[in-house]
Amino acid sequence: MAKKKEQDTKPAVIGYLPDDVPPLGKLVLLGFQHVLTMFPATVLAAMLMGFHVSTTLAVTGFATIVALIGSKLALGKFIPLYYGASFSYITAVVAFTGVSFGEVASDEALSLVQVGFIATGVINILVGLLIRRAGGKKFLDTLLPPIVTGSVACVIGVALAATALSQASGVSDGFAGGSGVYWTVAMVTMISAILYSVYLQGKGFIGLLPILLAAVTGYVFSIALDQISYLTSGATLGLVDFSRINAADVIRTPHITLPNFSHPDALTVIIGVGIMAIATIPESTAHLYQISLYVDHLADELGRPKYGLSRYIGLNLVLDGINDIINGFLGSPAGTNYGENNSLMVISRNYSGPALLMAGFIAILLGFFGPLSDLVSTIPTAVTGGLSIYLFGVIGMQGVALMISERVNLFDPRQLAIGAVIMIVGIGGAIGFPNGFLPVPGLGSLFPSGLPAIATAAVMGIMLNLVFTLFKPSVERSEATKVLSVSEQTSTGD
After folding, report:
1. How far, in Å, CA of 424 to CA of 222, rounded?
2. Would you place residue 89 in the very low, low, confident or very high pLDDT band (cuts 50, 70, 90)?
3. Per-domain residue ranges of the chain
4. Would the pLDDT of 118 be above 80?
5. Buried (b) or exposed (e) across 171-198, using 16+ Cβ within 10 A?
6. Helices 353-368/24-49 angle, 10° precision
7. Do 185 and 225 form a contact (C-beta atoms < 8 A)?
8. Which has more confidence, 453 or 468?
9. Which of 169, 63, 83 is nearest to 388 (CA)?
10. Is the model more confident about 166 or about 183?
11. 369 - beta bridge partners?
């Protein structure tokens, strides 16, 4: 009887698997939370590369919908990923557009760069088809083993740390020495996100909205600080700028530009921008592996069949490629599936494909509806910084989780070598050099700013793995020779 009572009082498992459809009201909230998560990075990437923000929001939303529907048609189930503008292309693109932050590039420059984005799409599709034909996950594990994809995921998360802290400190908004007010707002937001994600889990639908709740908390706190400052000094702190609302027309038409394949520099941009796909392929692979791991864990908890999404990495890369081609044809930066939204799904336990479709529709609305976009743009940088500290950190930790789940043997010197090189080159290059480009001389016009650190780290890891695969050492380190963990040693009594 006591056992039955214990089972009755056990909290129900709350969460949505990829094909689950939440009720409409919840669907809208979950979709908006996804948009809120992707919005800062996608808008920032567009502004850094000189693309129209409204166009980027609308087109990336549309491309996400196409990718989701594509997975559903091909597999009968959703691959739950959101596609936003990628930071991997920034320096390569700026070399052709020549814009400064916030400037919009000319239509001629955008049309030229779009040719490069289409090239990245073609590369992704070809690699995806090769993987599908050559054996799927087994082939990919040989080409991109977990030590590579897991390490790249860690690098991506840690490399974004400076961006998160720059936003949280106010440095990104022009406070050279940082701002105590920004830090206060960021910490309130970050702590709120952590507390909501930990203590609201299992508390029903509200437990699926930790990031949205934290953003609202930080936003309201910022407004309160502005009002207190106004009452005491006659001036606000400028955290929330309501003057941005209704600054544009209620309905705006996204600015569409078409790729110019006949441009004299078309071949140069195909090489200079297209080759950046090498950065997004391992990133996309790592993201799919991560989300597959957590989706299957939730399915286990719910007592439902596992999805095994990691088996479909070839299709996922094809969908990535289609996504880039859509962006390239309509005038939006090339995209990637967002680790931020993966983190959100892991934190909230919401992997619903329909919720991501809703997010895509909301993003399209943002591109067309001026006031809605303006309202979201009033979210203080300090709030996004506080959220980013948590979200970007989760990206890095998911890489660790991936390596643990795949039983990567870090006592094997080959695995250590691959991971070590990826970590140092990727993280060191991303945070130690301007725009994350390694200053390698003699690269000419192909890489005028140097080699992209994360892409270079991934390639070096892939090449090391290839060498170790082709030239195996005479002595293999077996599972039996692995060093026992501290807990295992303690349990043996030695």
Report:
1. 37
2. confident
3. 13-241+256-473
4. yes
5. bbbeeeeebebbbbbbbbbbebbbebbe
6. 50
7. yes
8. 468
9. 169
10. 183
11. 251
For residues 334 and 328, the answer to whether their CB atoms sit within 8 Å is yes
Q: Give dist(CA 473, CA 330) in Å, integer.
A: 50
